[in-house]
Structure formats: structure tokens, C-alpha cells
Write a structure and sequence with these properties.
Distance between the termini: 62 Å
Structural class: alpha/beta
Keywords: Methyltransferase, RNA-binding, S-adenosyl-L-methionine, Transferase
Helix content: 40-55%
InterPro entries: MeTrfase_RsmB-F_NOP2_cat (IPR049560), MeTrfase_RsmB-F_NOP2_dom (IPR001678), RCMT (IPR023267), RsmB-like_ferredoxin (IPR054728), RsmB/NOL1/NOP2-like_CS (IPR018314), SAM-dependent_MTases_sf (IPR029063)
Number of helices: 20
Protein name: rRNA cytosine-C5-methyltransferase
Number of strands: 12
Pfam families: Methyltr_RsmB-F, RsmF-B_ferredox
Strand content: 5-15%
Shape: globular
Family: Belongs to the class I-like SAM-binding methyltransferase superfamily. RsmB/NOP family.
Length: about 450
């Protein structure tokens, strides 16, 4: 494709996304799915430019308003992006907006005037409000300022960078060294070990793992290091009986099975049958199918699951959440999640936490996890749980993970014994994990 044709595709994608409440990834998949003729290299550039428009949305909007430009559509934002981010000259932009087949129509006089006014400027400006600088809705900026204070700019700068590709090596199929050797044989370069997760590998973006022998043989799974750390904090042992109550696609279930060396029983539950169907396929490929049982449940009050009270050594609750910890991969989420959505999620999380706690045997552990950065979904909910359930005590993270690398700021105090991960500090997705041990049978409330 010509550069102009790729630009036209980005504009079409962005305008399509802004006129729907649909997920940005789904918009991209649908766009390329109906245009099979677009090659892999073109797809990567179009996708990268589209997500950059979303990552730069607040600052681009601020500049257009500051310049007195009345349009805020994909075309206007793309022009501003090419000047402010890419540093292109008017002649370069005119070359792309040529009006040729599949390219954007030629520049209007007011667009040329906009380019002249933006020349020699960059995305950032001292006059931009804090919410604009950090690319956040005003309400979300105010909430996160309470958490990060003066560090918020650095935190959000990290969230605005694309994430690399993390893999977990499946120890049921081989070693980390086996995986590296296999990937290199398939021409994969620049393979790094993840700094914290012992079985993790980190690769550059844009690689297709699904065609590698390591993936087909079940030796690797695509999984962010934060999720791998969460699995480690489950502290699963061979022979245990474990409930993964919100199993989804089964990534953490497979990690738990590997830690159990395939010996024991894992019950993977979810309300979506399609997710569990995918997890069954993954379990067979990973060689973990014998110890994993999948079951569809109606909700956290499911009658079949209710009969399992006090039954499990470990209960993992990777609860439905805002997903705001995955902004590196899903930058559009910040513009799609609202305060009302957050309140709905918090009510659901509280119900799941209460139901999950009832399934833990005496001496067993409850692991609460989210890929959210919001205190309402994490610390505040956990604090309420600790007030209500005196039959559970928090387990400090450093007791579970005593050999954590020194570069990991693992909390260990009685007041805040949970773990909060972020791309700025750890290079992972944003993630929260809290672990509790049941000290008595207690009374289910």
C-alpha cells in the first residue's frame, strides 16, 4: 500500500471507532477481516498509527482546540499527529493527502493553515492541563492523583507506551532453555528473560507466535509477566484442589497446572462457555487436560458451586474489572470506562469475593486479583472484606515469595500486605494481588 492509502485506512478506522461503543481491538479485527488483501506489514503500520491516535487523543484534541480548528474527526487528528508526533512537513503531508485512488483527498486551505500553525510544535506543551498531559478523562485523572500524586505523570507515560510480547514457558512441556532454543530455530531474535517471573520470556512486538513450533507443541503461552506473578502467588502445590472461579480463557489455570506438575485437581469456572471451550483446547495443547475440569456456572451464586463450600485449598478470583491496568495494550479503555461502569463492577466484585471466600477450606488461601489500577476495585474493596471476615487473615506477599528479586518492591507490612504492579515500576501491566488465609471455618455471611 502507498503511505497515503495507509493514512486513509487509519482515518477510516478512527472515525469508525469513535462512532461506536465497540472495543478498539474488535474494530481493528473487523476492518482487516473484511479486507484480506491488506498485507501483514501494512496491517502493523495501520494498527500502530490507529492506536497512537487513541494514545494521543487528549493532546491532539487540545492542540486542535488551541489552534481554533473546529473539526475533531479522524482526518483532523491524523493531520495534527503527522505534524506533532511524526514531525512531517507540509510537503510530506501533501504527498500523502494526494487524492489518488485509496488516498485521502487533497488538503483544504484551512488544513494547510493548521499545518503551518502547528509547525515546529510537539504533542506536549506546558499549558496543557494535567488530565490532558496524562491522556486521562478528568474524573479518572482526579482519582489516580489520589493514588500516585506527583508520580502520576511518570506512571501514565509508561501506560502510554506499547507493551512488549511476554511469554510463559510451560514446564510441563520443557524448560526455559528448550523454549529459547525452539524459538531461535524458528528465526525469533532478541529474546529476553523476564526480570521477575522465573518462566517468562520477553520478545519485541509484532511477532506471530501462533506459527512457531514452541506454541504448537504447548511449550509456550502468551501471558504478561504480571499474570505470571499472580500465578506464582497462588503458591499451588502438587496434589492440591484448586478453584479458578473466573477462569476466562484459562491462562492462569494453565500456569497453576504447571506449578502442580499436573498432579491434583483444578476446577476452572466461568459464565461464558466460549471462553471455557478455548481453555479446553489450550489445556490439551499444554498437556494439562487431565488435572483441569472446566464448568460453566450461572454466576457466583451457582447452586452446583455452592455445594463446594469449604472444599478448596486455593481459590483464585481474577475478577471482572475495568481492565485499566492493560492500557498499554488497550489504550481506548480509558475513554470507554465511566464512573457508572466502575460502580457496577465493584458491586459484582464484592459478590464474587464473598462467594469465593466461602469455598476456601480452613488453612486454605483466597487470592483476589485484578488487572485494574483503581483503588476502588482493589484496596478499598479488600479493606471492606477484612473488616467483615475475621476468619481470614492477610498473607504478606514476601512470605509467599521470599526469593523475589530485590528490584521488586514487595510489601510485607501488616497494613498493606498486597502487591500492586505497574509498567513504570515493574515493566508489567498494571495488576493487583491480595492473598488471605482462612484461619477458621467461620460463618458464611
Amino acid at each position: 500500500m502507498k503511505p497515503g492509502a495507509r493514512i486513509a485506512a487509519v482515518i477510516e478506522l478512527y472515525d469508525g471507532w469513535t462512532h461506536t461503543r465497540d472495543d478498539a481491538d474488535r474494530v481493528v479485527s473487523g476492518y482487516f477481516g473484511s479486507r484480506r488483501y491488506i498485507g501483514g506489514g501494512d496491517r502493523r503500520e495501520i494498527s500502530e498509527r490507529f492506536y497512537n491516535l487513541i494514545r494521543h487523543q487528549a493532546r491532539l484534541g487540545w492542540w486542535l482546540a488551541e489552534m481554533g480548528y473546529e473539526f475533531q474527526d479522524g482526518r483532523a487528528r491524523m493531520i495534527a499527529e503527522l505534524v506533532l508526533h511524526d514531525g512531517l512537513s507540509k510537503a510530506d503531508i501533501e504527498d500523502r493527502f494526494s487524492g489518488e485512488q485509496f488516498c485521502p483527498e487533497t488538503l483544504h486551505p484551512n488544513e494547510k493553515h493548521l499545518i503551518n500553525k502547528l509547525a515546529d510544535k510537539t504533542l506536549d506543551h506546558d499549558a496543557q492541563p494535567g488530565a490532558v498531559k496524562t491522556e486521562l478523562p478528568k474524573w479518572l485523572y482526579a482519582e489516580l492523583m489520589k493514588l500516585h500524586h506527583e508520580n502520576l505523570s511518570a506512571e501514565m507515560a509508561a501506560y502510554n507506551q506499547p507493551a512488549k510480547l511476554d511469554l510463559r514457558v510451560n514446564r510441563l512441556r520443557g524448560t526455559v532453555e528448550d523454549a529459547i532454543k525452539s524459538l531461535k530455530a524458528d528465526g525469533i531474535k532478541d529474546i529476553e528473560r523476564t526480570p521477575f517471573a522465573p518462566n517468562g520470556l520477553r520478545l519485541p512486538l509484532g511477532l506471530n507466535m501462533l506459527v512457531t513450533a514452541a506454541y504448537k507443541d504447548g511449550l509456550i503461552e502468551i501471558q504478561d509477566e504480571a499474570s505470571q506473578i499472580c500465578v506464582k502467588l497462588v503458591d499451588a502445590k502438587p496434589g492440591m484442589t484448586i478453584l479458578d472461579m473466573c477462569a476466562g480463557g484459562g491462562g492462569k489455570t494453565l500456569g497453576i497446572a504447571a506449578d502442580m506438575r499436573g498432579k491434583g485437581r483444578i476446577l476452572a469456572c466461568d459464565t461464558h462457555g466460549g471462553r471455557l471451550d478455548n481453555s479446553r483446547k489450550r489445556a490439551r495443547r499444554a498437556g494439562a487436560g487431565d488435572c483441569i475440569q472446566q464448568r460453566i456456572i450461572a454466576d457466583e451464586r451457582d447452586s452446583w458451586l455452592r455445594n463446594k463450600s469449604g472444599f478448596f485449598d486455593r481459590v483464585l478470583l481474577d475478577v471482572p474489572c475495568s481492565g485499566l491496568g492493560t492500557l498499554r495494550r488497550n489504550p481506548a479503555l480509558r475513554w470507554r470506562i465511566g464512573q457508572r461502569d466502575l460502580r457496577t463492577l465493584m458491586a459484582q466484585q464484592s459478590k464474587i469475593l464473598k462467594a469465593g471466600a466461602a469455598k476456601v477450606t480452613k488453612g486454605g488461601r483466597l487470592i483476589y486479583a485484578t488487572c485494574s489500577i483503581m483503588p476502588e476495585e482493589n484496596e478499598r474493596l479488600i479493606e471492606t472484606f477484612m473488616r467483615d471476615r475475621k476468619d481470614f487473615k492477610p498473607v504478606p506477599i514476601n512470605e509467599i515469595w521470599p526469593d523475589a528479586p530485590k528490584s521488586v518492591p514487595v510489601p510485607g507490612g501488616k497494613d498493606k500486605p498486597w502487591l500492586r504492579l505497574s509498567p513504570n515500576v515493574h515493566g508489567t501491566d498494571g495488576f493487583f494481588v491480595a492473598v488471605f488465609e482462612r484461619t477458621a471455618k467461620g460463618k458464611v455471611k
